Amino acid sequence: MFLNTSKISFFKKVAAKLKSPAINKFINDIVVKELELRLNINYYDNPKDKDENTDKNIIWFCWYQGLENAPVLVKKCYNQILINKPADYDVILITDENYKDYLNLPDYIIEKYHSGIISKAHFSDILRFSLLAEYGGLWADSTIFTLKNINFIENKAFFTLKNASYDPYTTISYGLWTGYFIGFNNVFYIPCFVRDCFYKYWETENKLFDYYFIDYAILLAYKKIPQFRNLIKELDYYGNNRFFLKNKLNEAINQTDDLLLAADSVKIYKLSNKIKMKEFTENNKMTYYKKYIID
């Protein structure tokens, strides 16, 4: 076994119960050190030549079954990105049918995905960093919802929803990145490093050691690559309100929350498909879900 999944989970729960950032950091450091020793991934400042693929500005969006089969919320998120993207960006939808048009993944990755060893959730992690390593651009998860133009992503070597509002007892990213909204522009060695962590791991392993492997891989990149640390340090805090709308969707529209939404200068929100949504409250008041997703 690569890493002891049950022990990681146990000590994470201990850190959360004891409210101990120190224990959490200790666990993170052990996992990252183990990854570093076992995977032995090197990075290079310029691992690939710039080609015609990298001249395009792309936002990557994935729904395996195709948009026509997506839930209403996902369709709305996709349409909002089309509306709010920078003018010179293309939005490319990745599906089970077309991902091979963009990537030449190792055979063992594809085989383990089709056999169920690699879940759809983790396969999307592999896809995002393979696409970012090959083409650059920005990955937006299918439940990322935008309420204004996102032109501020332009001309940045690195972009993510860096935030100061994270749980110090369970965090892996320490608020420095979000894997569900992350982009790179002409710094291919960083996504290449994370991609290669996935490739090297699955070359020999048949079980995911932790659901948040993506964050551990990015944390390893953060520790090993000084330029990556500098890019994160230079980036503003764009993600402090990322869950605000998610927490309000089933609530009645009200002036206080309207003002808070209006005051948010970023307006990029992480929503969820796993929450049962309603268009009206028990008092027949229209909800924010009705206002923003349905109407």
From TrEMBL:
Q: InterPro entries annotated for this entry?
A: AfumC-like_glycosyl_Trfase, Nucleotide-diphossugar_trans
Q: Name a Pfam family for this protein.
A: Caps_synth
An example of a GO molecular function for this protein is: glycosyltransferase activity
* SUPFAM superfamilies for the chain: Nucleotide-diphospho-sugar transferases
From which domain of life does this come? Bacteria
- Tell me what this protein is called: Capsular polysaccharide synthesis protein
Organism whose genome encodes this protein:
Epilithonimonas hominis
